[in-house]
Amino acid sequence: MNILLVGATGKLGTAVHAELADRGHRVLTVGRTAGDLRYDIADPAQVTAMYERAAGIDARDVIDAVVSAAGDVPYKTLTAMTAQDFRAAFQGKVQSQIELVRQGLGRVAERGSFTLITGVLAREPIPTGSAASMANGALEAFVRAAAIEIAPQRINAVSPSVFTESLADYGDFFPGMPPVGLAQVVQAYVRSVEGGQTGQVYTLP
Predict the structure, then answer these.
(1) Residues 154, 114: contact at Cβ < 8 Å?
(2) Most CB contacts within 10 A, which of 70, 84, 123, 191?
(3) Strand locations in the chain, DSSP E?
(4) In the CATH scheme, what is the code of domain 2-204?
(5) Model confidence band, residue 67 (pLDDT cutoffs 50, 70, 90)
(6) SS3 label, residue 5
């Protein structure tokens, strides 16, 4: 498959890239500051430019799958959050990934797929995580709604807990929540890209 991978240079994106490439897929990477293509998907105009550029690289006239491992949200107490903070969370994680789908419908293969990233805070909120919970919940609802409209194209989301590999940095923010190994999360991406399901939210663990 020809796969467009957004957020390919972060911890998760790097692991997803390696696995998909090992499985024989041709992966075109996208990032704000690194990757084959440099675009900020929080800007709808840059999403348009990204798709136009991707279609012309190495004669990739068909994109079989769009995979996202990107999304930024602020973490603050609710009393410290501003209206702009919530707008930034929506733009940085929700709108950006919705645009990947909305603009990608006419650019992805007839039976191609989209895989988005959400997270555990959609179902297990934490202090300072209201923006992330809002963004993740909105994306999961969008995936279920989009799936009934875009067939035979498919759409799923991967919704992991904190990575085992990131516990040293972020474990204190997720007290009592079981972590998930990065390799397990990567396999959920493989399941979404190579499988046949749609409208699914793969929760991990």
Answers:
(1) yes
(2) 70
(3) 2-6, 26-31, 37-38, 63-68, 108-117, 154-160, 200-204
(4) 3.40.50.720
(5) very high
(6) strand
